[in-house]
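== Sequence, structure tokens ==
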Amino acid sequence: MHDWRARDFVARSPVCLIAWGSEYVVESAQLSVIVTTYNEGEELHRTLRSVVQNTACLREIIVVDDGSTDGACEAIPPGMARVIRHSNRIGIAYSRDEASKAARGNVFCYLDAHQRLSPGCLDQCAQHALAQRSIVSPDIRDFGLFNWRMHGADFELCPKRGYFSARWRQWFQLRRITQVTGLRAPAYLIPSSVYARVGWSPMLRGWGASEASVGVRAFFSGTPIHHLRGPLSRHRFQNSSQFPVSWDEIYRNQAIIARICFDDEAWLNYWLPLLGPHLTAATQAELDSTEMHAEREQFRNHKIRPDREFWTHLLRKSVPSVLGG
């Protein structure tokens, strides 16, 4: 029988050479895998087994039980994972941020509770993420024989509603490493040294904008997002959410991202007119709260690109006329 004790996870860690001045120092990847779950049942256990069986540089698994009622987290074998429990559902972004703050590895990997990994998938991604100080995602494919293999994603504004989104790259990539501009679904890995400038705001709640948040922050902070061809994460994509989702929470999360990441001019003249009609009075109050101002100031310490480049460099479009374009 497999011994699930955490000390057995650390062996055989991949090693990276990290530039330090004119020299290189050796740094081993120590992977904290963070899995968010809500009533996933046996799917959660299959995902955890896939992580353990296919990952050499695993230091720990952290499962965030976001208000589940199915008892699946209580059935996790002792020592296999640390579990953070919420009595009620809070949301994916908040859960990932909470687990990241508790993680002890030097690379964080984010998974949903319905994924399977190819052998060495996370090891290869972790090694590259650590060496390049970048966000890294492997190939992603749905379960089944005849589904497209996705090769990363590119950031976009939703064609119908204008808010933050991304689209899959379905064409085969000739290069093993490709720089992309967005994220759409796990798996993806972020070095712990990079997380502070690209991670999720604890103000985000419910569903929506999880990956978009990281994409926007990565662009403004100058953090590259890389796709690594070859390693594969299978993902059981679902046609509908297993928990209630409201447009109020979706627009709330979009507004929080815009308020944190953009300066006052872009917020007041572009994002507020676009999102404001969809925001509740409570959300509008939150956008001017002390917590919001603190998050904005914190992100300003990492922001190196001006707002105009969001349109000209990321979206490859003209600056909106309301911003002087």
Summary: The two ends are 64 Å apart (CA to CA). Confidence is low (pLDDT under 50) at residues 1-13. The chain is about 35% helix and 25% strand. The first strand starts at residue 15 and ends at 20.
